[in-house]
Amino acid sequence: MKLSRQTVVLLLSLAFFFISMYFTFEEKNIFWHLYTFTLLVGTAISILFGKFKDALPTWKYILFGIGFGTITYGIIRVGYIFLKFLDHGSIKQIRKFLETYGPNNIWHYLLLIFIIVIGEELFWRGYVQHALKQYVSPIFSCIITSLLFALAMALSGFIPGVICTFVTSLIFGFLYEWKKSMPLVIVAHEVFIVLLFIVFPFIHY
């Protein structure tokens, strides 16, 4: 069976992302450089082959973005509280992971806010999720995209991070399909990250 050009590009893009993520987690000392590079390439792929929806006026996507970003933060925080009571060993694993890969200087925060968050949304939502809708329904495209993103995180061996990635990706994926606005999911993701790491961090490392 001959694969279409769109399918080949999608498979090659995913292969690149997974291979790049493997080396990114292996090379701890240059993690931020490699992950930023990965997302810059992902952004370029998205611009060339993706499709970005923008169906909301500016005030609406900012308002909804702040709201859903805050809700997502709340969901992850509640999950952390439950995990803390159920499995204290996982909390130590989270702290160890963040000590190794978490942002710890202004440079990391700038990369996270201005390149990584935007790149993740453009690549996973604007390209992969959109491309998968050629083969499955929008609901399944959200689920599969979230699973793929979580599998990429699984290369780190960090299971709580895999769960967090899947949950947040699922929220942003369904939000994108519901409101048809890429700026909205980017704002929501930015708000989530700012709350998680800067304003109200609940994990100290």
Automatic annotation (TrEMBL):
InterPro entries the record matches? Rce1/LyrA-like_dom
- Output the GO biological process annotations, alphabetical, semicolon-separated: CAAX-box protein maturation; proteolysis
Q: Spell out the Pfam families in the cross-references.
A: Rce1-like
The record's GO molecular-function terms, alphabetically, read: endopeptidase activity; metallopeptidase activity
Transmembrane region positions?
7-24, 30-49, 61-86, 106-123, 135-152, 158-176, 183-203
Domain CAAX prenyl protease 2/Lysostaphin resistance protein A-like, by residue range, is 104-190
**The entry's keywords:** Hydrolase, Membrane, Metalloprotease, Protease, Transmembrane, Transmembrane helix
Protein name from the UniProt record: CPBP family intramembrane metalloprotease
Can you name the source organism?
Answer: Ureibacillus thermophilus
